[in-house]
Amino acid sequence: MVDIATRVHNHKWKIDPIVRSLIDTDFYKLLMCQSVFRNKPDTTVTFSLINRTASVPLAKMIDEGELREQLDHVRSLSLTRGESTWLRGNTFYGQRQMFRPDFMEWFENLRLPPYTLERRGDQYELTFEGAWPEVMLWEIPALSILMELRGRAVLHQMGKFELEVLYARAMTKLWEKIEHLRRLPDLKIADFGTRRRHSYLWQDWCVQAMIEGLGSKFTGTSNCLIAMKRDLEAVGTNAHELPMVYSALAQGDEALARAPYDVLADWHEEHSGNLRIILPDTYGTEGFLRNAPDWLAGWTGIRIDSGDPARGAETAIAWWQSRGEDPTTKLVIFSDGLDEAKIEELYAQFHGRVKVSFGWGTLLTNDFRGLAKNDALAPFSLVCKAVAADGRPTVKLSDNPEKAMGPESEIARYKRVFGVGEQERMAVVV
Question: Among 197, 13, 30, 3, which residue's Cα sits nearest to residue 106?
């Protein structure tokens, strides 16, 4: 077992890479990248860092030179032979050779494209622009770097014994959560915590704790490098990025209304089984399901990622019933801002009515709340989103308007096209 406190205390060498591999990323990113590589390889997309928690002044806390050093290191990475062999030969979701030879050949020769970094007051403006399959792979490394550098800025002020106590308390805190969750008899839960983790070493420790504490109830990790290292299932399907870009490319309102379903039609051609999971909330869950083609009702399940999760699941259950589907055969994955109390609550409400699963993110891999002076290590809401495609702005509405993004005029247009009315605002924790 790695002595994390000692490793943190000894961060003295020139560069201690935060991201150490191109597969130190979420599995869904690689699945989406292959889909984009096949369907939209020439689309130019811009990604931008968005700090939703303005009270965390990243540019005051993080040295620009150190940030550039970490970003430049990521640009030097390429797939190792072992990583390529794992991706080419492993079984994912019961399927061998999930990644096609042409995609793997491209990926093996990839180096991530340049970035643009500027300081704007107390925040950094970090953008990536280029061919969609290339720039999309910046999202997870960029978030991991910013999150960990912010943590290091706080940890650097602590002595070795203070660090040991900090990590002992954090380990105890997580283990107590695991002890609560292990009481749920049919629990299925996975690690979704790469993008806003405390650090790679801490995420790896959390995964090992989940393995020991939950056994078969722990179904895997979204982090490909940790999945390979710990011989776990790599888990994940797709994200809001796909419908956001497809919608931005749509010409006219009619094409815009079809775009979220065009995404899933392309996905349907490539994947089956547990990879056919609907993410319906990009432009409002209720409207998406109301207008969805019948073939989508036959998909395996749905992921709830914004708004009131119980309401989202009830909406999905009613939709399946209205389309002649048996909800007890369907998978519902909850993944928004979860902690053990909410997991227990949702499990109690939906266990037996649907197949319940949980993607546990930031509050698994970065819950240092209350453990540092002035709560300086509390997680915060940092995202890196596609903001433009071929020069056209992207929009996300979400089931929580606090997560909406895009120009106001385009948000109004999208609400009209997708029939989104008044929405309940909910605080964004992470």
Answer: 30
Tell me how far apart the alpha carbons of residues 18 and 202 are, in angstroms, rounded to a whole number: 12
Tokens (6 digits) for 33? 């990248």
Cα–Cα distance for residue pair 178/173, rounded to 1 Å? 9
Cα-Cα-Cα-Cα dihedral of 59, 55, 125, 66, to 10°?
Answer: 30
Q: Is 25 in contact with 108 (CB distance < 8 Å)?
A: no
List the structure tokens of 326.
Answer: 């048996």
Quote the CA–CA distance of 107 and 114 in Å, as a whole number: 17
Q: What is the DSSP letter of 215?
A: G
Element (H, E) at 108: helix 101-108
Mean pLDDT of 125-153: 97
Determine the Cα–Cα distance for residues 403 and 342; give it in Å rounded to an integer.
20
Q: Angle of helix 253-270 relative to helix 408-418, nearest 10 degrees? A: 70
CA distance 83 to 89: 10
The model's pLDDT over 345-387, given as tens digits with 9 standing for 90+, comes to 999 999 999 999 999 999 999 999 999 999 999 999 999 999 9
CA distance 11 to 303: 38
Q: Which two tokens stand for residue 92?
A: 């994912």
Rounded to whole angstroms, the Cα distance separating 218 from 232 reads: 10
Q: Which residues contact 11 (CB under 8 A, 6 or more apart)?
A: 152, 156
Residue with tokens 């948000």: 411
Distance, CA of 409 to CA of 287 (rounded, Å): 20
In the DSSP assignment, the letter for residue 405 is B
